[in-house]
């Protein structure tokens, strides 16, 4: 049997109607309430005329035949209701990075051909600026957040929209081929939309296979039966605008378990996170590397929380450093820490485990379908092959990138007759079957769990009139894991202080992409062809 996320959630909700589904701070919704709100939202989208335009069989891998809904929200129950409701209406929701400035948002919404955007009130000024630039006719759904911003012209308040429509199910049958659409910063400098069939992403990363054995579910009846025993909930402190947090959410929603999120979304409050984890007796917490792990650990050192029910700490999107792992295990000896490896283009690929009696080896146990392929993309390597290749994924992989046939062909090559996803991570496959991850072969910087493309930052810095040349690299950071550093060459006779350069860049890119330091050099080192020498750049800042 092939699965659709709306179909799976609906069956689980029907079987467990009175069980807690979403806990968002002090807000609590049962499975029945969540499903009803999703049905109402689906009907509203459908009555607006959003849905399927062309079926999958008529389309190329890089094409979408569905309406697209931008989800421009911080973590909240409405985020998950929007995804579920869209899936019920056969609309493809996509994640919007709420840190984007108007220029970036304009590009994203245009690239996605968004027909509707659901946004938190606090983002109204940025969205309004982007929409004025686009001049597009987009349906707008305004979600109140206490910020005091009024709805944009033509926008409808979300709660009023739900109240205005019936909760009767739509006379639609969602398809396993309907899209799960996920934007990733990637390594191309601009965000790309990865197109997954819902069946494939469900089995790969959203709970459709057993975590320990890799065995895949085969029927709705099996899913429902597995959901019947009541289990503790899981919690995330990571933003739902990233794939890993969405996967964590749907693993729980599709298994009949509560999904818990802190109620404060303007900043990360580790004390609130631990208090909520204690109150809800969550069994697991997911986060993104040291950027979340360090403040959580600092609060844990000084606070007094009953976390005896917390058994698993999951980090995805960025690694948790060894000293932090060690201290977590000293303070919470019952913990197992899981480093989850994967990408938007490959799903959940591998993991490494640390516990009180087992240190992390630095190597990962591959999930089903994870392999290493040769550097020239012609061979599938075997465990024990000494050569360094590319981490790849087989079988349950995306269709391609929206609107980009060339990059689709490059990232999803056919090797030995099998289609693979090869996002760009170097790896070595050891004889014991473990995979050693050697890092992205590009200049993408991972800072606090965010992917930052060096050339995009360089382009923003070059907007300053005094800047003649710039190379952007990174250096280790206690707080962020890595931090962005710009090496700048000023034009002859020009002067500029670092704050002015950063201020100009801030007009063009999101704040988290801005360099934490500017290093001035008389001349930058480049290759004869004009390419930046990133190895030289790294030596200047480390």
From TrEMBL:
Residues 345-358 have a biased composition (Polar residues). Residues 12-384 form the AMP-dependent synthetase/ligase domain. It comes from the Bacteria. PROSITE patterns: AMP_BINDING. One of its GO terms (molecular function) is acid-thiol ligase activity. Transmembrane segments: none annotated. Signal peptide: none annotated. Residues 343-365 are annotated as: Disordered. SUPFAM superfamilies: Acetyl-CoA synthetase-like. Residues 456-531 form the AMP-binding enzyme C-terminal domain. This is Acyl-CoA synthetase. It comes from Mycobacterium seoulense. The lineage of its organism: Bacteria, Bacillati, Actinomycetota, Actinomycetes, Mycobacteriales.
């Amino acid at each position: 049997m092939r699965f659709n996320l709306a179909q799976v959630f609906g069956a689980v909700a029907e079987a467990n109607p009175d069980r807690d589904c979403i806990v968002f701070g002090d807000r609590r919704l049962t499975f029945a309430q969540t499903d009803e709100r999703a049905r109402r939202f689906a009907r509203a989208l459908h009555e607006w005329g959003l849905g399927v335009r062309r079926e999958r069989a008529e389309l190329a891998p890089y094409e979408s035949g569905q309406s697209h809904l931008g989800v421009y929200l911080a973590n909240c129950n409405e985020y998950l209701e929007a995804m579920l409701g869209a899936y019920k209406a056969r609309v493809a929701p996509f994640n919007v990075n709420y840190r984007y400035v108007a220029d970036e948002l304009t590009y994203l919404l245009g690239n996605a051909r968004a027909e509707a955007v659901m946004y938190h009130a606090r983002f109204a000024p940025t969205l309004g600026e982007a929409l004025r630039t686009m001049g597009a006719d987009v349906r707008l759904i305004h979600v109140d957040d206490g910020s005091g911003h009024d709805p944009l012209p033509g926008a409808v308040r979300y709660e009023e929209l739900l109240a205005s429509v019936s909760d009767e199910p739509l006379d639609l049958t969602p398809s396993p081929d309907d899209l799960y659409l996920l934007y990733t910063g990637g390594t191309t400098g601009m965000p790309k939309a990865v197109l997954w069939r819902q069946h494939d992403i469900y089995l790969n990363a959203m709970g459709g296979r057993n975590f320990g054995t890799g065995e895949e579910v085969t029927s709705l009846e099996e899913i429902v039966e597995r959901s019947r025993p009541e289990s503790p909930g899981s919690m995330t402190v990571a933003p739902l605008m990233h794939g890993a947090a969405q996967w964590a959410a749907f693993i729980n929603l599709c298994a009949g378990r509560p999904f818990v999120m802190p109620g404060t979304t303007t900043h990360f409050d580790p004390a609130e996170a631990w208090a909520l984890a204690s109150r809800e007796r969550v069994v697991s917490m997911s986060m993104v590397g040291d950027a979340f792990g360090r403040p959580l650990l600092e609060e844990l050192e000084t606070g007094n929380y009953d976390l005896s029910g917390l058994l698993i700490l999951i980090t995805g999107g960025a690694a948790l450093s060894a000293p932090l792992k060690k201290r977590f295990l000293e303070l919470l000896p019952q913990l197992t820490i899981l480093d989850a490896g994967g990408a938007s283009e490959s799903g959940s690929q591998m993991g490494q485990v640390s516990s009180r009696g087992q240190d992390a080896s630095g190597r990962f146990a591959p999930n089903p379908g994870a392999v290493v392929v040769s550097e020239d993309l012609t061979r599938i390597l075997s465990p024990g092959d000494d050569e360094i290749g590319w981490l790849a994924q087989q079988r349950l992989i995306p269709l391609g990138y929206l609107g980009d046939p060339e990059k689709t062909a490059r990232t999803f090559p056919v090797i030995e007759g099998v289609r693979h996803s090869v996002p760009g991570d170097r790896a070595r496959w050891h004889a014991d079957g473990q995979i050693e991850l050697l890092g992205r072969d590009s200049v993408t910087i991972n800072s606090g769990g965010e992917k930052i493309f060096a050339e995009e930052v360089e382009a923003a810095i070059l907007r300053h009139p005094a800047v003649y040349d710039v190379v952007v690299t990174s250096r280790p950071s206690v707080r962020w894991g890595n931090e962005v550093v710009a090496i700048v060459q000023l034009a002859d006779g020009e002067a500029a202080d670092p704050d002015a350069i950063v201020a100009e860049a801030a007009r063009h890119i999101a704040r988290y992409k801005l360099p934490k330091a500017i290093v001035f050099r008389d001349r930058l080192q480049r290759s004869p062809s004009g390419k930046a020498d990133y190895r030289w750049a790294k030596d200047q800042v480390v």
